[in-house]
Design goal:
Blueprint (H helix, E strand, L loop, with lengths): L3 H4 L25 E5 L4 H6 L6 H13 L7 E5 L13 H18 L3 E5 H9 L5 H4 L3 E3 L4 E5 L2 H7 L1 H15 L6
Parallel strand pairs: 1-2, 1-3, 3-5
Antiparallel strand pairs: 4-5
Helix pairs in contact: 3-7, 7-8
The structure holds uracil.
């Protein structure tokens, strides 16, 4: 079981020295969907919740339009719970240090399906070796239910409408995996 108090003072990796707070994640238990990003950005490090910045706004608009789920219906988290300096990608040792927290969280939350956002989350959650360019939109059968990866919404903010259209198509596949709520 995830010990939120222990997690909120975690010092298992060097990110504990530069973060403002541990961004644990939140949402209902047993949700239709668990949304998993890479790591908190500046806004999340300050606010203490995942995806409360511009990427989150885009992400939850697309999820509502394509899957019919609101943020409140999803459990939202990241594979790494502390912000890497300057939003660099998490290092291998940081991913490894945070992995037991994520595994305990997944075990507790018991989502109906999992959506991984971007390369880091897709590799970490689904064990993909190939990049998101080839793994997005593929359905994975996990022990607890189906999973799917798509581009990170930050990539869509940089890459524009072409990336948004790919995300929309992936989310329509996700819709067919998510139990109606
Ligand atoms: N990007 C992520 O991967 N996670 C967040 O919580 C915010 C931005």
């Amino acid at each position: 079981m995830l010990d939120r108090i222990e997690l909120s003072s975690c010092t298992r990796c060097a990110l504990s020295r530069t973060r403002q707070r541990v961004v644990i994640g939140s949402g209902p238990q047993g949700p239709a969907l668990m949304v998993v990003g890479e790591a908190p950005g500046r806004t999340e490090d300050e606010g203490g919740e995942p995806f409360i910045g511009p990427s989150g706004q885009l992400l939850f608009r697309l999820l509502e339009e394509e899957v019919g789920l609101t943020r409140a219906q999803c459990f939202v988290t990241n594979v790494v719970k502390c912000r890497p300096p300057n939003n660099r990608a998490p290092k291998r040792e940081e991913l490894e240090a945070c992995r037991p927290w994520f595994d305990a969280q997944l075990d507790d939350v018991r989502p109906g399906a999992v959506l991984a956002l971007g390369n880091t989350a897709a590799r970490s959650v689904f064990g993909y070796e190939r990049g998101i360019g080839t793994t997005h939109g593929l359905v994975v059968r996990l022990a607890g239910g189906p999973g799917l990866a798509t581009y990170h919404p930050a990539a869509a903010l940089r890459g524009g409408s072409r990336v948004v259209e790919v995300m929309r198509a992936d989310l329509r596949i996700l819709k067919s995996l998510v139990a109606p709520s």
